C-alpha cells in the first residue's frame, strides 16, 4: 500500500534523463508520479500533459518529477522525442518505488501512482491513475485546496 497523506516524504535521489544525480527537494510543493514505462501510449499521454501544464506548475511553484524503472538512456530518448520539460528519474532497481511503497507489476514496472508532497509530507495520493487529464487534475486540486496560487 502506498504512503498516505500525512506520512513524511522519503528522501530520494536518482539520475535524471541527462545522467545528473537529482535529490528531490520537498521544501516546495512537489509532484512525484510513477509510471510503468517510457514511450507507451498511456505514459506518453501522462508525460506530455505534465509538459503542457509546466508553465502553470512553475507559476504555482510546484516541481514535477516522473519516475519509472527505465534507465537513463530510455528516459533521454523519451524526453527528447516528446519534448518533456521536467526530470524523469531512472529507478531500475525500484528503490524510489520502494521508498514510496508503490505497487509493482509482475513485470517489475510500477503501477501508475502520483504523490503530491507539501512541507515534506505526503499531501495527496492518486492511485489507478487515468493519464488523460491527470496533470490538470493534480494542479486543480492544489489550486482548489489553496495550497498554491497562480501568480
From TrEMBL:
Q: For this protein, what is any one GO molecular function term?
A: thioredoxin-dependent peroxiredoxin activity
Q: Which InterPro entries match?
A: AhpC/TSA, Peroxiredoxin_AhpC-typ, Peroxiredoxin_BCP/PrxQ, Thioredoxin-like_sf, Thioredoxin_domain
Q: Which reaction does it catalyse?
A: a hydroperoxide + [thioredoxin]-dithiol = an alcohol + [thioredoxin]-disulfide + H2O
User: EC number(s) per UniProt?
Assistant: 1.11.1.24
SUPFAM superfamilies per the UniProt record, alphabetical: Thioredoxin-like
> Would the keyword Oxidoreductase be found if you checked this record's keyword annotation?
yes
Disordered, as annotated region:
1-22
Per UniProt, the keywords (alphabetical) are:
Antioxidant, Disulfide bond, Oxidoreductase, Peroxidase, Redox-active center
Domain Thioredoxin as annotated: residue spans: 3-144
- Specify the domain of life of the species encoding this protein: Archaea
Cite the Pfam families for this sequence.
AhpC-TSA
Q: Where is the active site?
A: 43
* Record text on subunit structure and interactions: Monomer.
The UniProt family comment states: Belongs to the peroxiredoxin family. BCP/PrxQ subfamily.
- What is the protein name stated in its UniProt record? thioredoxin-dependent peroxiredoxin
